[in-house]
Amino acid sequence: MPRGKTHCQKWLFSSLTWLLLAGIAQAPSIPSKPPGTPTQEEYTVRIARLRYQGGGDWYASPTALPNLIQFCNQHLGTQIAPEEDIVQPGSPNIFQYPLLYMTGHGRVYFSPEEARNLRHYLERGGFLLINDSYGMDRYIRQEIKKIFPERPLELLSSSHEIFRYPFAFPKGLPKIHKHSGKPPQALGVHLNGRLALLYVYESDIGDGWEDPSVHGDPEEKRLQALRMGANIIYYAFTH
Hints:
Number of domains: 1
Low-confidence stretches: 1-35
């Protein structure tokens, strides 16, 4: 990636931000509007959603990322542009983003060129977050094998760093939506000790990020999802 780990850190966190992080676990509620919203020129980083092939609804949960970004900008002090960009997995533009997000309910397909491009992106410091919004699992596991045929997905234990900072999840990944009723799983691929790909299965934190009117989730569940999402953003931008 042209911009490595050090650049990601510089994009997002000033020294003042690190001081603010000490009290982040006390964030009381879901924000309605972040105070002191930056102008477009002041945003220091953008994140992108993957527009993949295969027929699945890559565009699912349209209010999810904007709400998570708003939460992170208020509670982590990040300066992430409020609207996500859209990129294709085979595009050289993916190297502009420290984090890529993908979700959906159906079929996913990566061409050999797309899988190779995603691998290069991850090897150079990028982070890929995949949220199964129910129905993606039977397809995405095969596509992840195309990216890393030699690296099986690992089940992350509840002691993994991603569950500890800035918000504590002592039991690991929270269960946001029931779906088939299976326990939630955080599965990942590590590269040189760094978690580079995170696959969230049977939790659907993405639905928990959406506007309250979409699923009718109680604020407690939405706050769990947003805090877990903030942990992922924090990890991706600091490792």
